[in-house]
Amino acid sequence: MTGLRDKVLNLLARREYTRAELWQRLVRDTTNEFEQQQLAALLDDYQARGWLSDRRFAQAWVNSHLRRHGSLRLRQDLAQRGVSREDITEALATLPDELSRAREVWQRKFGQLPQDQKEYAKQMRFLASRGFAF
């Protein structure tokens, strides 16, 4: 158990994780049902102590990725990492205006208006791939 505890603390010392990410990463190392129960109890304990928080992870993720991605992409990334809908909604509520962020991303990448329909489509595809809504 202390080896598992040390491994979880070592991971959490490096960066924030969601509970689902830690579970997925550490369940591979367990060999039986008893160890999985110990892991679940350990993660419960860390959540109760505030050392493991999906809400805090969501805030950190949004803050570090908001200059490159739109709300749709951020929402999808957080959902894939196992963050609850409530925590995602709360994290995205603090975002600045989507249009201004899209303009900033567009300005860094292109800097000038499209000259033809083909260039316009290319720029729109780029923004859509970054998770900005039309």
> What class, by secondary structure content?
mainly alpha
Number of contiguous helices: 8
Residues in helix, %: 55-70%
Topology as a string of helices (H) and strands (E): HHHHHHHH
Beta-strand fraction estimate: under 5%
Distance between the termini: 50 Å
Rg (C-alpha, Å): 19 Å
Shape: elongated
Beta-strand segment tally: 0
Biggest sheet, open or closed, and with what strands and sense? Answer: none
Taking all residues together, what is the mean pLDDT? 92
- Give start-end ranges of low-pLDDT stretches: none
What is this structure, in a nutshell?
The protein has about 130 residues and is mainly α. Helix content is about 70%, strand content about 0%.
Give an overview of the whole structure.
The protein has 134 residues and is mainly α. The chain is 69% helix and 0% strand. The protein has eight helices and no strands. Helix 2 (19-26) packs antiparallel against helix 3 (33-49), helix 4 packs parallel to helix 6 (85-92) and helix 5 (71-80) packs antiparallel against helix 6 (85-92). The longest helix has 17 residues, at 33-49. The mean pLDDT is 92.
Protein traits:
single chain; 134 residues; mainly alpha; 8 helices
Please give the structural blueprint.
Layout (H helix, E strand, L loop, with lengths): L1 H13 L4 H8 L6 H17 L4 H12 L5 H10 L4 H8 L5 H12 L7 H13 L5
Helix pairs in contact: 2-3, 4-6, 5-6
